[in-house]
Amino acid sequence: MDIVKRLWLKAFFAALVALATLPVAQADQIGAVRFGVHDTHTRIVIETSSPVEFNAFTLAEPAARLVVNMPGASWAVRGLEGGSGQGHGLAGRFRFDPNGQAARLVFDLEEAAVVVRQFTLPPDGGGHRIVVDIEAAPVQTFTASSGFPTDSVTLTQLVAERAQVNYMPPRCERIRVVIDPGHGGRDPGAPGRFGGASESTLALNAGLALRDLLNSRGRYEVIMTRDRDVFLELDERIRVAQRAEADLFISLHADAAPNGNTSARGAAVYTLSDAGTTRARSRAMRDGEWIVTSETRTAEVNALLLDMSLREKRNQSLTFAESMLSSVSTVTPLFRREPLERGFWVLLDSQIPAVLFEMGFMTNPDDSRNLNNPAFMQRLMETVASSIDDYFESCGTAGTLRTAAASQQSGSALR
Ligand SMILES: [Zn+2]
Fold this sequence. Notes:
alpha/beta; Immunoglobulin-like; Aminopeptidase; six-stranded mixed beta sheet; five-stranded mixed beta sheet; about 35% helix; binds zinc ion
């Protein structure tokens, strides 16, 4: 038999085998595996012929894997009759391990990752859907959260707990914004230049203007860390935001360039840096911030939840900082076009999206004139207020999506 004929026969028999495994109205058949790669996470969607009980968890040893247990499920994916295939994003190659009540789908992980969501969706033109979202995580976090679910901490509990404690989507009503005019009292900040006011006075002027603008919208509850010339410890500024359960924290400052440099000018927005995140983590651990100790909330679980919360905070802060920069740039030059990262103390809370706004350089004559001009300050704060409007506008859509995911987590998928 020549080689071509042999190949044809081989293909023919392969097709026969495939035919034999075509769906035959049997329960719990896996019909498709799909992937969605997003900025922060990879979504794995597994379609099944009927609602399937499942649980997803990661294993660190002997190799990094994601396991989706689906007792009783069988494999019927057209084109992947061998039961294996190539994933996308954080999920690498996968294979189905049919084993009756121990049937499972196993994915190689491309990097350390944690399961952040797992839930089911009803059919929408196709089959029932199992949805598992995984996010890249530091190796320690991955290792701590990996392992076969035990009675004390199952991934299911973890996800449910996360839904309760993690940073919740911005509220659409009674949005709480904390405005933090920097310095004050015995700490005047940078001294006034060119006959202008000190940093603490400029920051207070800005904060009061922003407060009035936000109040006039009737949509925000504004909390000031200070509304007069008083001294306030840095940590107390964070606590004001935490007590208020704020949705956003904005600290207002004015910059001063060193060494007689008068040319540096423009506004800058800072968010929490990597080093700052490390400090924020130890700060939260030290203060026991929202860290709950219970039989199921072990130290590892708390650490994992804290990491997730910090990541979410940084993402949100960055989103807001970017929109703020583009809004602010309509009335003032920018010192840097992108948000800058720094470990400023007032940014160290572990949950509340927070930025520090340097409104301009007091050491630059043009910036100094502007910052001391109430009409300019009003225009500048109007751009900040409108970026706050933009940021919270999406709470009706993006926020709802996340709420929906959270309620699904605590629903039927988590039995
Ligand atoms: Zn300052």
